[in-house]
Amino acid sequence: MLAYDFGGKHPMNPERLHLTARLARDCGLLDLDGVTVAAPPVASDDELATVHSPDYIRAVRHVSSNPGTSDAARGLGTEDTPAFAGMHEASARLAGGSLDAAEAIIRGSAVRAVNFGGGMHHAARSRASGFCIYNDAAASVQRLLDRGARRVLYIDVDAHHGDGTQSIFWDEPRVMTVSLHETGMSLFPGTGFAAETGGPSAEGYAVNVALPTVAGDAAMLRAFHAVVPQLAGAFAPEVIVSQHGCDSHREDPLTNLRVSVDAQHALMVGVRELADRLCEGRWIATGGGGYALASVVPRSWSLLVAVAAGAPVGPATPVPPAWREYVLERHGVEAPRLMGDGADIWWRSWEVGYDPNDDLDRTVMATRKALFPLHGLDPWFD
Prior knowledge:
Layout: H1 15-26, H2 45-48, H3 54-65, H4 87-107, E1 112-115, H5 136-146, E2 152-156, H6 163-168, E3 175-182, E4 206-211, H7 216-235, E5 239-243, H8 261-278, E6 283-286, H9 297-309, H10 321-331, H11 359-371
Parallel strand pairs: 1-6, 2-3, 2-5, 3-4, 5-6
Helix pairs in contact: 1-9, 4-5, 7-8, 7-11, 8-9
Protein name: Acetoin utilization protein AcuC
Domain Histone deacetylase: 10-306
Family: Belongs to the histone deacetylase family.
């Protein structure tokens, strides 16, 4: 999976996956009973074509074989998504991991699955964008539908709007896409506002919460719990697919949300609890954005593995000394001593009242007003 490498000083450094896998193993998470590590296959063109156009797949193959070329109209060979030799195979392997996860859920050989190398949520049906070539999360959702799932809930808590996944399922009422992200007024891709609610056949099935630019932990958690459990309950999904980009962190160089690893962990637990309550536990979790490659990404996504595995590893758990020594030797930086940041993640429940003078409350209420009535919910009281 480390072959997904744009090279040079590109922010999407595959080292983040290497460090995550090593930390997860050093924490004992990959050796737990009930945990299986599976090598992801390269997704076939037919599998990719369930969510991408054949012309686009051919264009990716062409640029992959001719990395000196570009196809800017399809977002290939750009500054954000540079071409590199083997790009098709590397991208298709990320997708293969999420497709494998979906197959395991369908077969019943797993109840939960994690692909922290996935979460390429900006890739649209016919265009690469935002470091994303093939949309593995969308492919896994479509695989679930094609194998008989009647309703799939997609939850995206990356700092950036999950625009590609939303666009692929824009007019599909069997899929509800929910994205909580930094407002498009201050961050790429500039979309994801409350008024984006879905296509003519699926109005109310695209859900967006455009968080204030520097929202922080309490705002992120308040927004999640004021919107997601209510709509999830009304939708009644059979499986949840989630995207856990950790670029919302206060140390991330590309975003501004200022969220702690502790709050990211709380969101993971929130998604797991929804899966347990609504889907008999069925849950596929992916990675996504995250560019503080040694200090944040490995801790956040190792905690994601721990939450999915039901392991007693949390924000207060010490980081294994061997991993910290490895990071110091490999990168010359001191890694954090705890899996979390020691943050206070208290948040104010929506039930205590709506404050019209608060930026966060106004954006949450905009989403509730736009979506709740379409699902028989009261935006003021539910």
